[in-house]
Amino acid sequence: MRLSLFVFTLLTLIACTEDPPEASFTMSNQNCLAPCAVYFSNNSKNALSFHWDFGDGKSSVEPNPYHVYETGGRYTITLTATNYDGTSTQEESINLSNNNNVIGRIATITINSLPNLPPSCNNCWDPSDGPDLSFAITDGNNNFITNDGNIHYNFTENDLPSYWSCTSTCFLPQNTNFSIVFKDDDGNNSFEVMGQTPLFNLGSLTDYPPTLELTNNTVSVTLGLDWN
Q1: For residue 142, what are the CA distances in angstroms to 102, 110, 146?
Q2: Tens of pLDDT, residues 172-216
Q3: How high is the pLDDT of residue 40?
Q4: What is the reported pLDDT for 156?
Q5: CA distances, 15 to each of 11, 23, 80, 120 (Å)
Q6: Right CATH number for 102-227 from 3.30.200.20, 2.40.50.100, 2.40.50.140, 2.60.40.150?
Q7: What residue segments make up the domains of the chain, in order of their start?
Q8: b/e for 62-86, b at 16 or more Cβ within 10 A?
Q9: Region class of 218: left (phi > 0), else alpha (psi between -120 and 50), else beta
């Protein structure tokens, strides 16, 4: 009994003398024109958990998140790092300008076909239960313009066609090439690309159609468009 009490006391003392956390992070793409994504690299020490406040009412607990800012403005980003010994915070501010060349937005995204979905395929994505499907809009350099958090879990070919209502971040500047990327979300900001549409530019259209079809091999998408 005394030995057990000694071991318990020793472990408690070790836990109580843990080095305190040190919050630290850097940013990239912070000079972009909104709407756009800013990427965060977490350099904290001795931390067990993290909380990000992006300064626009949104937050994350991912270690190394990115965040899409819908409009320009001054935002203060706060990272809180925590362990058993306490918390530590770091704050950084960014000033984003609006992209005044936005000509329209993607209002809806309908996926009509996507390769290798279970159950009737030989090399299926997650053949037992289907992938956790979401989308992102990227530019010509594979940078995220927006990323949708609405995941369609355990997705199979029987769920086609499937529909997303795009958020207000889906505005597109006239001079921006974009692609719709479909991904299997694995959690912790990790994913695998399942397929994507070819690059397109809304500025190349000679009129203002309400819908747009994008097809690349076995990926077929219908976009609902709103014009400024």
Answers
A1: 19, 21, 11
A2: 766 778 899 999 988 777 788 999 999 988 778 778 889 999 998
A3: 93
A4: 92
A5: 6, 20, 20, 52
A6: 2.60.40.150
A7: 18-98, 102-227
A8: bbebbbbbbebeebebbbbbbbeee
A9: alpha
- The tokens of 27 are what? 């940013």
Topology of 18-98 in CATH? Immunoglobulin-like (2.60.40)
Q: Give per-residue pLDDT as tens, 50-84.
A: 999 999 999 999 999 988 888 889 999 999 999 99
Indicate if the alpha-carbon torsion angle 108, 114, 120, 122 is positive or negative.
Answer: negative
Question: How far is 27 from 221, CA to CA, in rounded Å?
Answer: 33
Check residue 226 and give its pLDDT: 83
Pairing status of strand 162-165 against strand 144-147:
unpaired
Per the CB < 8 A criterion, the answer to whether 79 and 201 are in contact is no
What is the dihedral sign for C-alpha 157, 160, 165, 167?
positive
- Decide if 18-98 and 102-227 have a common fold: yes
